[in-house]
Amino acid sequence: MSDSSPRTWLVTGASSGFGRALTEAIIACGDVVVATARKPEAIEDLASRAPDQCHVLPLDVTQAGAPAAVVREALARVPCIDVLVNNAGRGLLGAVEECSEAEARACMELNFFAQLAMIHAILPHFRGRRSGHVIQMGAAAAIANYAGFGIYGAAKAATSSLVEALAQEVRPMGIKVTLVEPGPFRTDFIGRSMARAAVSLPEYEPTAGRFAQYLGKIDGHQPGNPHLAASLIVRMVLSGKPPMRLVLGKYAIDKTRRTFAARERELAQQEVEGAATDGP
Ligand SMILES: NC(=O)c1ccc[n+]([C@@H]2O[C@H](COP(=O)([O-])OP(=O)(O)OC[C@H]3O[C@@H](n4cnc5c(N)ncnc54)[C@H](OP(=O)(O)O)[C@@H]3O)[C@@H](O)[C@H]2O)c1
């Protein structure tokens, strides 16, 4: 956006990590934020420091009806919402076979259906104003997945695909969509925001088990700084020309390049025979 009037953002999962860092960056740039969290007390300090710029509302995004209610409640406090940051999320560690259907459904409920519910809740407002910006937190696991992250990566990939279609559908109405794809960042994600499959089978120790060990080792030492990511996201929104995808951190950038290069090599090998299957 090129004008300098303050925007209003609605952020989910603002209690820690990217959500809290974004709330701080939004306040710092002079914009207004409706910061939502399951435990609103975790962000009351930000609201008390900037009461005119930060409104705090309780929100568990997985509760039926809560996304629509929070948008109504937000619009009772602020005249409009310009940006939705669909950020709340949790991981699920475990091999595909180790994750129960209930664990998988809970992961999909939060990382896919609740994101969809927030998008459904905000779109009538954005359509009515013929403007708005949905920022969706994706994940490097959705670019190419790892053993041990099958269900989480599937939920994130489903959400990525959802917003890829959404971007094309709402562009003619002046609504923007950006998918943020972070690599490892120093947040609470690997710690308290990582569910683990209750079942652990020895056969998966060399694959999913090793990945879990790797995550345990990097926790607290992830290269990504959520405050630097938040200020880039804010600058990207303020630029008025946001990309459809924003890949964050060198790890995710290298991974994206490697993934595309591997696909290109594979495609080249199958091009002749694959194309020859077109026919009457
Ligand atoms: N950090 C990384 O390396 C990384 C990489 C790729 C993608 N991501 C994505 O980044 C997003 C933010 O995670 P983070 O890294 O900032 O981790 P984080 O510090 O653990 O933050 C996760 C946030 O999501 C909230 N949340 C979880 N379940 C919720 C629910 N049902 N309703 C409302 N809020 C809920 C948490 O709230 P509570 O305090 O109530 O638990 C917390 O505020 C997630 O979508 C995650 O998948 C993170």
Briefly summarize what is shown:
With 280 residues, the protein is an alpha/beta fold.
Would you mind describing this structure in some detail?
This protein is of the alpha/beta class and 280 residues long. The protein has a single domain (8-249), classed as NAD(P)-binding Rossmann-like Domain (Rossmann fold), CATH 3.40.50.720. Helix content is 48%, strand content 15%. The protein is built from eight helices and nine strands. The strands form two sheets. Strands 3-2-1-4-6-7-9 form a seven-stranded parallel β-sheet, with helices on both faces. Strands 5-8 form a two-stranded parallel ribbon. α4 (101-129) runs parallel beside α5 (150-170). The radius of gyration is 20 Å and the shape is globular. Bound molecules: NADP nicotinamide-adenine-dinucleotide phosphate. NADP nicotinamide-adenine-dinucleotide phosphate (NAP) binds at residues 12-13, 15-19, 37-39, 59-62, 87-90, 110, 137, 139-140, 182, 184-185, 187-189, 193, 222.
Topology overview:
Layout: E1 8-11, H1 17-28, E2 32-37, H2 44-49, E3 54-58, H3 66-77, E4 83-86, E5 91-93, H4 101-129, E6 132-137, H5 150-170, E7 175-182, E8 194-196, H6 205-218, H7 226-238, E9 245-248, H8 250-275
Parallel strand pairs: 1-2, 1-4, 2-3, 4-6, 5-8, 6-7, 7-9
Helix pairs in contact: 1-7, 3-4, 4-5
